[in-house]
Amino acid sequence: MKKLLVTLSLVFGFIGGSVFAAPALIPTPPQLSASSYILMDAYTGDVLVEHNADEALPPASLTKLMTAYIVEYELARGNLSLQDKVTVSENAWRMEGSRMFIREGTQVSIEDLLRGIIIQSGNDASVAAAEYIAGSESAFADLMNQHAQLLGMTNTHFVNSTGFPAEDHYSSAHDIAKISRATILQFPENYTMYAEKEFVYNDIRQPNRNRLLWRDKTVDGLKTGHTEAAGYCLAASAVRNGTRLITVVMGTKSDAARAAEAQKLLDFGFRYYETRKLYSRGQVVNNAQVWGGSQSSVKVGFAEDVLVTMPRQQSDAMTATLDMQPEIVAPIAVGDVLGKITVGTEGNVLLERPVVALEAVEEGGFFKRMFDKIKLFFMNLF
Question: Half-sphere exposure (CA, 13 Å, Cβ side) for 35?
Fold first, then answer.
């Protein structure tokens, strides 16, 4: 591949060459009193801190993140509407544990059920939604496992929609972070529900069990969980100055502990890391030569914004190496991968991303194609 060396100084608002900066100094992350935990950049998916993050553990009501995700998935595809009415079965009504207090035989909207799942952690609401979507809770669990596979949740298996203790029902802190990230990025129109502090249904007012919603104004989700086997669990997310982090703690000893331990991770992450946008979607980084085309060059850039997680103290001047295909031959369609960009230095690669054609290039006429073929032939001899 042909290589082109470029600098990212302009991306960060500087003009000119590299600026000297001391290396970023980051202390050891906090050690939490939890069975497993993780801290992830929500926008890049980069893991900043982890401990036993891939260990399969009982997830308790963190399970309901997947239940709510599937409801939101079906809403986004038009298979459900928030106004759909669900008839409550006896099975849903009889669910024990945390409940929304829906009554057998009544009709409840999907919107109310979704809030009952997210805010009140209702086992009854989860079963009612599962039965409406898949016909039975066991069939819904199959759907949950299919979605888990698509999301790369490799240490997860669901048996029910609630997280009620069951054999062979497990997940991991890393997988819970993945479903949390998918919820935030894929369904922002529904994500505001996760920040609501209370919900009233059937004249019963119940608070959101996520204590961080009251303590930290930057926190806007996500979900708590607790059983004797799982301990006290929490998936939380916050956004500060354009950086969004997700933390999951599992197996803490109390409601207060899960909030305190999650807060430690969030504070550490925001203090020492940030998300930076290196390139924007559609930004042109090169005009690459095209052979045999109706035009002699093609604009090359990115299909999506290019984001990177970096230490806050890291220098604002970095280098990126752009590797282009040695021969780009028409026809070219928008989105065709024509090379890749590598950001960072040897031994410290921050990211690699494909670069794509930002415009289509049709084949040139007969004589243009023949001329370019002959030219390429002689060029390749040397």
Answer: 21
